[in-house]
Write a structure and sequence with these properties.
Helix 1 packs antiparallel against helix 2, helix 2 packs antiparallel against helix 3 and helix 3 packs antiparallel against helix 4. The chain is an all-alpha fold and about 200 residues long. The protein has four helices and no strands.
Length: about 200
């Protein structure tokens, strides 16, 4: 019994679909590997921050391309299976079901990767915020320490009797000013280290 043109078309369609789904499976497997690499970069520490962000955005772009290939393919495949004639060979229907199941697994992997990369993006952004907050605290602490010196210098130079004081107590006044500045800076450094701003 020779195969008719209809069964030949079905065989060709089945072969094309199997190859497509096989390629999509390979892409999904590579995406899982890339997801693990992105996860390592995110949790490697602040030194890898910009590299992790770049890897996440590159990954999201690749994921969107794969998602746009996988998700729309599911409905036409279900429609092909639903429209098989009742007299179609059971082997053909079984092959279509296998292809549909593989495609569903790929779609689940893609959706999992989508959720996982969004979680990694949130974790990366949180780490960046923490690092920026830490930097801002350090800048504020150094600014407070330097502001103390500015205050001392301002009081020292804005005194109306500056020339008289300077002529009378030049060395002791300068030494006392520097000592007060160093003491105030030391107290601020200890305080900021205690609250972990330095």
């Amino acid at each position: 019994m020779t195969a008719g043109p209809g069964s030949l078309r079905i065989s060709v369609l089945l072969a094309v679909l199997e190859q497509m789904v096989s390629n999509l499976e390979d892409c999904a497997s590579e995406l899982i590997i890339d997801l693990n690499r992105a996860e390592e970069l995110v949790f490697a520490g602040p030194a890898e921050g910009t590299e992790a962000s770049r890897a996440i955005y590159q990954y999201k772009r690749e994921l969107m391309m794969l998602k746009s290939a996988v998700i729309p393919l599911q409905q036409p495949l279900k429609s092909i299976i639903a429209h098989q004639s009742p007299g179609a060979a059971g082997e053909v229907i079984r092959h279509f079901d296998e292809v549909a199941n593989k495609l569903s697994q790929v779609a689940e992997q893609v959706l999992y990767c989508d959720d996982a990369i969004n979680s990694l993006l949130q974790a990366d952004l949180a780490q960046i915020d923490v690092a920026q907050n830490s930097d801002m605290r350090r800048i504020a602490a150094v600014g407070a320490i330097l502001a103390g010196w500015g205050l001392i210098v301002g009081v020292y130079q804005m005194t109306q009797d500056f020339e008289t004081l300077h002529k009378t107590y030049a060395a002791p006044l300068f030494a006392a000013t520097v000592a007060v500045g160093i003491a105030a800076s030391g107290v601020l450094v200890v305080l900021f280290r205690r609250i972990r701003w330095l």
